[in-house]
Amino acid sequence: xxxxxxxxxxxxxxxxxxxxxxxxxxxxxxxxxxxxxxxxxxxxxxxxxxxxxxxxxxxxxxxxxxxxxxxxxxxxxxxxxxxxxxxxxxxxxxxxxxxxxxxxxxxxxxxxxxxxxxxxxxxxxxxxxxxxxxxxxxxxxxxxxxxxxxxxxxxxxxxxxxxxxxxxxxxxxxxxxxxxxxxxxxxxxxxxxxxxxxxxxxxxxxxxxxxxxxxxxxxxxxxxxxxxxxxxxxxxxxxxxxxxxxxxxxxxxxxxxxxxxxx
Length: 263
Description:
The protein is built from five helices and eight strands. With 263 residues, it is of the alpha/beta class. α4 runs parallel beside α5 (143-156).
């Protein structure tokens, strides 16, 4: 029988990596996908969007800056892969997407007759294993439906991002990451509502190409108003406004673009 005194004892420091402490970010099995915004990556477990998992972006209304936040992902869709937008609230404006660097030939738009159809289309896109990222605009879903989406994302190892109303923030969700978005002067304010790690009390502020707090150029005040709207017009080229998916109004001036504040 071996002498107990001769048995080696593993120091606790060697087991440190096996234990997740609640006061620090969890170590993800796979690194996250960089968001394109270092300040946001710094507070996300894995350093970016979770892969093979469900993420929720909670917004007070469409057009607060959510598409500017996601634009780096859509720009980097590799050849042979797809980016999928399911049930967006408005029809995407292709010239603005192209001017922002999105490869339109790799972007799929799926329109759905109901939330149930949208969720079904989302699961089919994930099951194809040919998608680089899947975006789903979804207002109605119970816990069972959300769990099915989470399991589909895990099985496909594909990032799934749901864009949902801010009113559902108090509802339980299987999402591993939940972010609350709101327009901020000069860009976007992000509150981390849920992550694998300690609570983050201070919001993250991101600068976007066009301040979401500024009014839409085609919603300028009526003729005769003394308000000067020239500073609110978006820039062309690589500085396109990327806050919302919406076509420009037919009788508007300025470059074709996305519009902030669209609902």
